[in-house]
User: Fold this.
Amino acid sequence: MPTAADIDLKMMTRALAEARRGRPSPNPHVGAVVARGDEVISVGHHERAGTEHAEVVALRSAGEAAKGTTLYVTLEPCNHTGRTPPCVDHILQSGVARVVVACRDPNPHVEGGGIEVLQAAGVEVELGVKGVEARALIQPWVKQITLGLPYVSLKLAVSLDGRIATRTGASKWVTGPEARAKVHEIRAANDAVMVGVGTVLADDPQLTVRDVEGTSPIRVTVDSKLRMPVTAGLVATALETPTWILTTQDAPESVESSLMALGVEVIRVARSSEGRVDVTAAMRALAQRGVIRLLIEGGAELAGSVLNAGLVDELHVFIGPMLLGPRGRPG
Assistant:
């Protein structure tokens, strides 16, 4: 017979799996399970920003059966009114006897409030079950609310000799179809995907999610001088998939007007000492617009800029079975 601790671990593992199902940016991933002993009564997750939170979804599904049960939730229930009412109110109304929380809410405006309200009302609260896993799940959101920066993943495709493209700029086929399919999975897990304008000029990429389940991310191009051709595929499909360009104050307004007329959003940010887009300012601009997870697929210049600025949190390196030699650009 499983112990109470075994049941708590099992149910919180289920809640974490449920949390991963949502796409809630700019909110965190949260999952919840309502259980009586080792019997799952209902589950819920926060699907999208503005929709009901995970614990409310699970409790609504349970209905009257929630009375006297244990609620497992991966993040401390909120005690403030945002787009939705406080979750603690719904929990207290549901009649659950015990709440197990994986980790506290690190938001400096609400930290600790939910747990204290529940305890003051006589609800038993346990904190920390699978807390490390829960904290890792919301790390991108934590970075955004504490530092004002998105969680950045950098993807590099290199040859066996460490080259990322030929000298002509052609970089599409350094890796094979399996690696490219994996890239689409990674794209689907991010809010936005970023490249430099050099990649657009060389490859004319789509930067969409294809052949796997998921929503295409916002497509962002770093383009200090607005060299983006109006004939580029990104521009041609801007009305179908959100397309942004990060540029400087020096970029020509006439080009900006042409791009905006075609559905592209042009965002001007500070320039670096070299006259290019300041990558840290660019990251802050994206975070302010709700981008929590950002995948960068740019070439050597953009990759070097974000690495030198200390902005990269995660690195995905795909190694292709080829040697480019002097034909290639160093990775």
Observations:
- Residues 166-170 have pLDDT under 50 and may be disordered.
- The radius of gyration is 23 Å.
- The first helix runs from residue 4 to 19.
